Amino acid sequence: MPKATTLTKSRAQPRGELNRQSILDAASLLFIDKGFGGTNINDIADALGATRTAVYYYFQSKEAILEALTEEVTEQAGELARSVSGHDELPPEQALRQLVAQHATLILTHPLQFRVVERSESSLPEPRRAAARAARHSVLDHFVHVIQRGIDAGVFVAPDARTAALAVIGMCNWSAWWFEPDGNAVEPMAQALTELALRCVVRDRQRHQRPASVTESIRLLREHLDILEAQTRQPPD
User: Fold this and answer.
1) How high is the pLDDT of residue 156?
2) Which fold has domain 68-233?
3) Would you say 67 and 28 are in contact if contact means Cβ atoms under 8 Å apart?
4) pTM over 0.85
5) 19-36, pLDDT tens digit by residue?
6) Spatial distance between the Cα atoms of 67 and 24, rounded to a whole number of angstroms
7) Which residue from 78, 90, 124, 197 has the fewest beta carbons nearer than 10 Å?
8) Is 28 helix (H, G, I), strand (E, B) or coil?
9) Where are the domains of the chain?
10) Per the database record, which ranges form the HTH tetR-type domain (predicted)?
11) Mean pLDDT of 94-98
């Protein structure tokens, strides 16, 4: 597991620099460290070196902050996936490459937000929870559509498009729990995750004489991801 992240006084901002994004960032850290139930508006204001009134100018409650965090990552993920899967003229391999790269980049640039959403979604009001579920299902549907096109065209070897899509999305989502943005560049990591995903579904006639099983595809993803995680923990040369 990644080391705990805390908001230190050195990161507190002068009141004049307070803005919506700084509040979301501070709240994300506190929701991870203290839990959603253990955090209040005063905690967020103190972490920012601001007044409670200043925070209320942007958000009326911590629930409103959680809703904003959820909307930011879940709806954007759906929009990104839809922007690719709607173009059936793209070759399946190219489309899947874009899907994974976009999804991975979104998570790698918002790791805390993804962790907060996963941990605290149950604290959302039902309409917002329903919207978050719908957004996740939309992302899955777009991945399934592209992978199924590749299977039908004979360029992907995954025997089940939905299981393959869940495995690829799960690999990307898990990066939110181990990726450390301060010590690693986002773009190379997104490219690495994309290559891992493609290797597990793209047909290689020299390596695959028959379709790979679902179990084998998931095993390969986990094996490659373990190697990638280990590399991110190694100190730079």
Assistant:
1) 94
2) Tetracycline Repressor; domain 2 (1.10.357)
3) no
4) no
5) 899 999 999 999 999 999
6) 10
7) 90
8) helix
9) 9-58, 68-233
10) 17-77
11) 96
